[in-house]
Amino acid sequence: MHKFLKAQLASLISTLVDFSFTFFMAEICHQYYLTAVALGAIVGAVVNFSINRYWSFNATDASVQNQGFKYALVWVGSLLLNLLGTYVLTQFFLVNYLLSKTITAVCVGLGFNYTLQKHYVFATKKNS
After folding, report:
1. Helices (H), 52-95
2. Rounded Cα distance, 30 and 35, in Å
3. Which end of the chain, N or C, is surrounded by fewer C-beta atoms within 10 Å?
4. With 0-12 CB in 10 A as exposed, 13-18 as middle and 19+ as buried, what is 29?
């Protein structure tokens, strides 16, 4: 449970970075909302990978390149799910893009990201 809570805190921090960057790109720079969502996700992913590797899962014994590759694979799936969820809620249900992104991010974070990061990306004997 301790590892789960640390990963959720890391997720919260990276989500704040992601959302801030998304808002900045969409509202200040006037980028299309899906472009802003994708750019925010990239910045958030770098923050999340770093916090999870060094703190949440304490998985520094493994190769950073190997973990980075695995993280990128999971991240692409996460990005696609986040884009799809945000698009569907925004376009078809007329939900504000930030609320759509929030709802989608929570679902994807708990149901997809945490499990794959724990058991695939940062899997070590001490994380089992």
Report:
1. 64-91
2. 10
3. N
4. exposed
| Cβ atoms of 77 and 32 closer than 8 Å | no
| One-letter amino acid of 41 | A
Tokens of 32: 């299309």
For the record, the structure tokens of 121 come out as 């990306």
Secondary structure class of 95 (helix, strand, coil): coil
User: What is the reported pTM?
Assistant: 0.81
Query: Residue type at 56?
Result: S
What does the pLDDT look like over 56-114, one tens digit per residue?
999 999 999 999 999 999 999 998 999 999 999 999 999 999 899 899 999 999 999 99
CA angle 76, 103, 1 (to 5 degrees): 75
Separation between Cα atoms, residue 92 and residue 84, nearest integer Å: 11
71 in Cβ contact with 45 (< 8 Å):
yes
Q: CA-CA distance, 117 to 110, in Å (whole number)?
A: 11
pLDDT band at 124; cut points 50, 70, 90: confident
